[in-house]
Design brief:
about 600 residues, about 15% strand, alpha/beta, four-stranded parallel beta sheet, Rossmann fold
Length: about 600
């Protein structure tokens, strides 16, 4: 185990702009003597400290692994551009926050993959740690590289770099995997044998090196295991007893301000809705809920160990939690006199939400977020989001009456069956919702609207569809801004996702194993922090695709045939026939429901 504490203090920290990202030592961190442990694990997040420390999943795994006897887990985050420069110039290997141990010294290097555009940071972190980026080039003395998180369900573009993917939920899977590796390591089992043992034992463990693809031009001809007794399809790990699933009661308190600095309690897992564009709603099943008392107990414990002034209730759709009223009342009773606010993200507009703004008087009134997705009921029917205009207007009016002054709305452009008239209606609907406040206090509501471009996702009914061309999105963006000007709606603030980034997400997200070369080429050409505007360079990616003989925009717009072997169909997720039924229903609705003028309540 190589500890770099002196070198980091002397040659690294004085030369970086934000040393607080790299010093560790925060309240509630867990630091064990790594030299005395049977198994050491570096938990890596391929983004900067402020983003990584806001990711609840990583903190849960950190807490679980450090609770196992003989196991030590430490955090390693992506160094920002200035820090990478110092590390490379001074030949300092990437290190962990707790012990400042070299990444290469750990037995396991585990990555959380939350987005397609974090992949180049994974390669960069491996390289900065002195670890060969390709699995086939790693020696017996290099760590096992494991990955989990939402992207594991469509991980083929990263197959050449990762030894094993954990599909689904990690709480129980990481314990089983850690125990297996710990016991096998003791008896001197080789990495290859450990991986084979995991692949045979766990139906959520995908070891890409044990499988081969055969291609017919761009299409997959076959997917075969290298050995006859290996599975051909994998299942997502599922935590059945969610009530008692581990939740960190002493979260780490960041030294530098994180993106989300709050007590985060997951109240429900899975989503009862089936929005046809949403990978999480189809992959995270079944729906499970924590009891009101359990949630309140977790929130109290976390508050007393951190002093955070906001409690955030996490789920894919908090409005669907059946005992929301009882929960909010209970939390308010305990936290109100402590000046602790409640945050309720992911609210779905329905009959229940009309009651909610009044109910959550302790929620800070800075803004209420609603994912509307589409500006009329016809399009919402196509995407399977049963939101009525009447409910939306009633909920927003209730929010204004309860004291909310700002709204944040989410819309998506590029949906099947969409017309430019539908796009224009996004502005009209937002305009009407802002004006709705006038009858409450005579003022106009302030509305922030985020527009994203549909990225067809694996394991969803829309995964077979091609993305709309870039020119379509550019036309839509101009139309929205023109319509805003025409209405003189300065109280509407539009924010648009980067179109090039969405194209890249569509291309990589549904890509196969051949895309590993593209990702490596982009990284070698300088791709880093592709989710950050100041770093993202689309031209660099376009050339990396070109180098592999792929047109990135054609890849994003590619349609898959219903009978085609999909690059992700073996990787957990729902049954293909079930998804195709959803797709057929959507296409039938596109055909039957003709576009009509907006009928929202005036």
């Amino acid at each position: 185990m190589t500890i770099l504490a002196e070198q980091v203090d002397r040659e690294f920290l004085p030369f970086v702009r934000r040393p607080s990202r790299y010093i560790g030592g925060e309240i509630n961190q867990v630091k064990k003597d790594l030299t005395l442990r049977d198994l050491t694990i570096a938990l890596c997040f391929p983004d900067v400290y402020e983003v990584a420390m806001s990711y609840t999943g990583l903190m849960i795994i950190y807490d679980i692994l450090n609770g196992i006897d003989g196991v030590a887990a430490e955090r390693v985050f992506a160094p920002w551009i200035d820090a990478e420069k110092v590390l490379r110039e001074k030949k300092i290997p990437l290190f962990s926050l707790e012990s400042r141990a070299a990444l290469k010294s750990f037995d396991i290097v585990g990555f959380s993959l939350t987005n397609e555009l974090c992949y180049t940071n994974v390669l960069n972190m491996l390289d900065l740690g002195g670890i060969n980026i390709r699995s086939c080039d790693r020696g017996e003395n290099e760590p096992l590289v494991i990955a989990g998180g939402g992207m594991s369900n469509c991980c083929e573009p990263m197959d050449e770099f990762i030894d094993l993917f954990v599909l689904g939920e990690g709480e129980e899977a990481v314990v089983q995997l850690a125990q297996l590796i710990k016991s096998e390591k003791k008896v001197g089992t080789t990495k290859k044998e450990i991986l084979l043992g995991a692949a045979k034992r766990f139906d959520w463990a995908y070891v890409p090196s044990l499988y081969e693809f055969e291609y017919n031009e761009a299409k997959i001809k076959s997917f075969q295991p290298a050995l006859p007794d290996l599975p051909r399809r994998f299942s997502n790990a599922v935590v059945k007893n969610f009530e008692n699933a581990p939740a960190p009661l002493r979260p780490i308190v960041p030294f530098t301000q994180a993106v989300h600095e709050r007590v985060s309690v997951e109240i429900m897992r899975g989503c009862p809705g089936r929005c046809r564009f949403c990978q999480a709603s189809f992959c995270r099943r079944p729906v499970r809920r924590r009891s009101v008392q359990k949630i309140i107990d977790i929130a109290k414990a976390c508050y007393h160990s951190t002093g955070f002034d906001t409690v955030s209730l996490l789920s894919l759709s908090s409005a669907d939690y059946p005992n929301l009223e009882e929960l909010v009342t209970g939390l308010r009773a305990y936290f109100q006199d402590k000046y602790v606010g409640l945050s309720l993200p992911s609210l779905r507009v329905d009959q229940q939400l009309k009651l909610l703004p009044e109910l959550v008087t302790s929620v800070r009134k800075s803004g209420l977020t609603i994912a509307v997705e589409a500006a009329n009921e016809r399009l919402r029917q196509i995407i399977n989001k049963p939101l009525k205009d009447a409910d939306l207007f009633a909920a927003v009016e209730a929010a204004y009456r309860a004291g909310w002054q700002k709204l944040k709305l989410y819309f998506m452009v590029g949906l099947p069956g969409e017309t430019m008239e539908d796009v224009k209606q996004i502005v009209e609907l937002s305009f009407q919702l802002a004006k709705l406040r006038k009858k409450i206090d005579g003022k106009t509501g302030q509305i922030n609207i985020t527009i994203s471009w549909l990225v067809p996702k694996p394991h969803t009914p829309f995964g077979w569809l091609g993305q709309k061309p870039k020119s379509y999105f550019e036309q839509a963006k101009n139309l929205i801004l023109d319509e805003k000007s025409r209405l003189r709606a300065r109280f509407l603030q539009f924010k648009f996702h980067d179109i090039n980034r969405s194209v890249l997400e569509s291309a990589i997200g549904r890509g196969g194993r051949r895309y590993c070369d593209v990702i490596e080429a982009a990284w070698r050409a300088g791709a880093r922090f592709d989710l950050w505007n100041e770093c993202f360079d689309y031209e660099l990616w376009r050339k990396a695709f070109e180098k592999s003989g792929i047109d990135v925009e054609a890849a994003a717009q590619r349609k898959f045939e219903p009978g085609e072997i999909l690059p992700w169909e073996h990787l957990g997720g729902p049954d293909k026939k079930y998804l195709l039924t959803h797709l057929d229903d959507a296409m039938k609705t596109v055909k039957d429901a003709k576009p009509h003028s907006h009928t929202a309540q005036q």
